Amino acid sequence: MAPLSKHRHSQPLGCLHLLILPLLLSLCHPIIAAAADRRHYPCERPYNSYPFCNASLPVAVRARSLVSLLTLDEKIQQLSNTAASVTRLGLPPYQWWSESLHGLAPNGPGVFFNGTVRSATAFPQVILSAAAFNRTLWCAMAKAIAIEARAMYNVGQAGLTFWAPNINIFRDPRWGRGQETPGEDPMLTSAYAIEYVKGFQGEHDGDVEDRIGESSILDGSGKMMVSACCKHYTAYDLDHWHNFTRYTFNAVVTKQDMEDTFQPPFQSCIQEGHASCLMCSYNQVNGVPACARGDLLQKARKQWGFEGYITSDCDAVAIIYENQSYTNSPEASIADVLKAGLWTDLLLSLGRNGYQLWNLRLGLFDGNPANHRFGQLGPNNICTNEHRELALEAARQGIVLLKNDQNFLPLGKNKVSSLSIIGPAGNDTNILGGDYTGVPCRPTSLFEGLQAYIPRTSFAAGCIDVPCNSTDGFKAAVAVAREADVVVMVAGLNLTEENEDRDRVSLLLPGEQMDLVNAIAKVSRKPLVLVLMGGGPVDISFAKNNPRIGSILWIGYPGEVGGQAVAEALFGEFNPGGRLPVTWYPESFTKVPMNDMHMRADPSRGYPGRTHRFYTGEVVYRFGYGLSYSSYSYKFLSVPEKLSVPSSSTEAYIRKEPPYARKDGLDYLHIDEISSCEALRFYAQISVINGGNMDGSHAVLLFSRSRANIKGSPQKQLIGFERVHTTAGEATEARITVDPCKHLSTVNEEGRRVLVLGAHVLMVEDLEYELVIEV
């Protein structure tokens, strides 16, 4: 979210976030004010007599009181991420922009590490945590980040409004910010969004405070620990590819793709996660700037029940005129955003949906936080052993074993006398976090992690850096590799290859990396262990098919304890159980234009489609792929054979439509016309048998497909998942909730969600089970 250029801030509204309930940003004033010897808080004496300071009043009443006291000029000065002070009311300035994607990060001006707190726990990048397919883990990490965020706020080094999570769909493997997301699947991304927001805002039971109820913000009950923001709304997944940039890109999206791919994560984030913020994106959507799409913004409010504040991405309002030339003046851009429904919404709900409401819930107008809820949090709650262990567990659960010929791994500590690690990333802790990473507490490099197991561990970079544009270091690396019993080669990506404002043009390893891997594999005494770092998929077909490369692990960006997690995986301290949250495509996929937003395949123009739901081409590794040191088999224990929709509520709504490539008619029901969705829900109980000799944490993925499909239906879709602990040689039960209206439905070409009647197939790996939906 870096500003486009310095001149943007010459505009009086700065980063024009038009935090959509425009005038209210006032509520922000809390916190970080720069008094000479102490911080100044709202509602301290002599300003504590105002009604908005009265914590016994309903939130809505307090918010209306505050807005009514502001002059027009004062309201206008709130329309920025840096909200101005209102001295006469005792309100200090406030910085809305703080970042917390996978730990506290200084990407936004609200977080800084040059005070009492010098570092914060750096959890694995989101794409790796998503590979764990573990809701409990995601919620726990979000809660830990929130504790550190609130603690940093209490010492004046952060705000309380954070702009995470990133829940855009990882639509194209070249996207530089795909690493920030939970992957390519809308169901997986929705689940992550829900858990992050609930854990972060304090909706779950926790160690810090009692459970906070999921009540409406209107009744004033419940205080959030910190505020989360679902971004970037919507259809944003291109940063800078060839001549296309996120600032001017027009995402042309069909109604079908919008409703079944791009929108579900945001709907879930709002309806089930109860997010307090929504951020609109830079790009246009079908010719209109996303922040000026009144239909999309009002859908969030009126259909999904969104009650929070809406912010634009930094400068997203300014670029409507300056970069997109959509309007003829900056003033017209502001008018368009307001006419999109934001201003009207504000007038109808001052103190109802305003920022003040959320800041009141955050306790920003309750005086010195030390005297209130969460006020006891401080530096001792940051970089704790508990949070470090959680970061380690997240890396463990996310690491994906892609290849393990002849069970080369795990290594035996007593059978390896020496080890070498090759590759510039092998001894570099700066690479461990990926983008939006802060200052880690005690980072452990891969070299340090391995050296803890094998003291005779040597290192050679091989390449000067990750781009590896020279072979100058090859000779030295080969010499080091020759001398070791086992060689670990670290290859892949870093932020010079994939990042915000930087998309890739190739899916191959950068520069001369492939040649280095082959050179090391050729001279190593035993099969090479290849460790791949990076967020985006890489075409490593050469390594997959090379018998000299025995094992391959993908570790994403594993966070500050990544070195320890990788060493533990290689030496069998845990059983790898991560699964890929994205499809790994071959290099030939780069022929597909990244700016083509269509999800569905179109054979007539040689278009292969995108993601595991629609892609029809060859893959290097499929979505959900992941090996283990054990072998697993499955059995459906309890699943209904038939589901009956009560005829009294459906007979009038049964539709007939010519199916794709079939002659007979197809029966289906519009979801919004079914009154009995809850009655159709069921549990799929699945037996998971660990056939190996090692216990393991295992992710069970449940897919479905319909035997008779609406045109453009997914080939198959993820409908549920559960992470379970398994014991060697024994069976464990996984229990997955299935909501047919949500999970077994599809979206037609008109953008309406429908439930197809007839046979549906549930799938776990190669195991299939058929159930029938009938009237």
TrEMBL record:
InterPro entries: BXL, Fn3-like, GH, Glyco_hydro_3_C, Glyco_hydro_3_C_sf, Glyco_hydro_3_N, Glyco_hydro_3_N_sf, Ig-like_fold. GO terms for biological process: arabinan catabolic process; xylan catabolic process. Pfam families: Fn3-like, Glyco_hydro_3, Glyco_hydro_3_C. Residues 698-768 form the Fibronectin type III-like domain. SUPFAM superfamilies: (Trans)glycosidases, Beta-D-glucan exohydrolase, C-terminal domain. One of its GO terms (molecular function) is xylan 1,4-beta-xylosidase activity. SMART domains: Fn3_like (SM01217). Residues 1-33 form the signal peptide. The keyword Signal applies. Keywords: Glycosidase, Hydrolase, Signal. This is Beta-xylosidase/alpha-L-arabinofuranosidase 2. It comes from Cocos nucifera.
